[in-house]
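User: Can you write out an input/output pair for a complex, sequences first and structure second?

Assistant: Here is one pair. Inputs:
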Amino acid sequence: MRIGLLAGSGSLPRQVHDALLNEGHEVVPVMLGDAQPILPDATICPLDRPGRLIRHLRAKGATKLIMIGRLERPIVSTLRPDLKGWRILPKIIKGLRQGDDGLLRAVAQIFEDEGFEIINPLAYVPNLSLAAGSFGVPHVAHLEDINRGWALLDDLSSHDIGQACVVRAGNVIAIEAAEGTDAMLERVADLSDGRSGRQRQPSGVLVKKPKSAQDMRFDLPAIGPRTMELVAQAGLAGICVAADGFVLAEPEASKKAVAEYDLFLLIRDHS
Amino acid sequence: MRIGLLAGSGSLPRQVHDALLNEGHEVVPVMLGDAQPILPDATICPLDRPGRLIRHLRAKGATKLIMIGRLERPIVSTLRPDLKGWRILPKIIKGLRQGDDGLLRAVAQIFEDEGFEIINPLAYVPNLSLAAGSFGVPHVAHLEDINRGWALLDDLSSHDIGQACVVRAGNVIAIEAAEGTDAMLERVADLSDGRSGRQRQPSGVLVKKPKSAQDMRFDLPAIGPRTMELVAQAGLAGICVAADGFVLAEPEASKKAVAEYDLFLLIRDHS
């Protein structure tokens, strides 16, 4: 199958690109917005110039698209739209006002309106996620924290926010909203500074799962080596994610980091 | 009535102290923990030396206590407990592990176990809060954001977290957990940096209300001039708090700041 790969920043686009090729798919690589062009032979497409890109995708016969990677938020005053860009600009700006999710939704909608199908990479790229199971062993106290965080994220989900929280010894220490998981973990590391040496042994968990309204086709929760590093710096004991609800960036480096920082990584079924 | 005033940091203890005197009460002032001694003639009581303090309060005939102000978290390794301190130390340490709320609950419990009654300052100090109403005028969009945040905090309440969140244009930008309202507002100010000039006109609201399990006797949500300043720096349009659910620090300076920063302050009934 020929798949258009609309790539943002980070290591995930390259990982998905190579896995698709390994699976025998043909890939039409596109770097979206201001992302660093890390895909070989990629077409570069600013968010305000969709016209040429759409013609390019059609000419190459790519009807299915994967959107992956972090979209850099464009500065509205620097946008120089092409013809189609002028028509979609209001959608982009409205999306920008609604946060990162909104931007992704707006961009996806533009391509869907043009007749492309956006597909969930988890369904096409093997090993992009991990099956239910555990690396390292959470203790009973950690499982209690996990249950607490899991229930909280379920409740937050109906408010169309959430994705991640940190729970330690039964207390919710941090909840992610617009700042992103990394910034939340950095905050927890700062909060931990008040603890005395005795209390510094790792405790608490990062719980991360998709919200119910999450569009898994273009907005997959991701964890990677940097997540492990920040979790360790925050003094947490481990991570819990939902099976089929996340992508693992740089799988080998991630698993190595889990072991190196002596963390656990629990992949939990949705039930 | 003779009231023991157990004071932490910040301007609120002095405000409560003076208001109690104005109302004709007798006050036995105590500075708790490592708080700066801002009350006149106050006894100073580290958290690990409750024995002498309890004798002092009894000798002065103070059977009702008000706890007000921010408790600094003690470093466990520096504690030098007195006789009663040794008995209560495990409770203090357990409380410390459960966050600021836990510390307050633990300290309150210690005094209750000794037969003192902890009273809600809102019931004894007039003008410590504001009646339902509005300073400045929220727009319809702000009211929608307020409703969104209010419903979110109600849902979070059952998880024994919450107190505050920031909503802008229908999106929850930040949720407060252990970091406190000020840190959350600073985060929102950082998030706003990506917005272009056009988008910088104030929008979004800080919503703050007690959680259902909040013990209003010793853990009153507070706002003050610093809150107004941070709300303005975060580019928000205003604040919504719950009537009978907050104290207003430095009332005159607070109201002045609301006007100066062109904010609204909506005090909303609980219904």
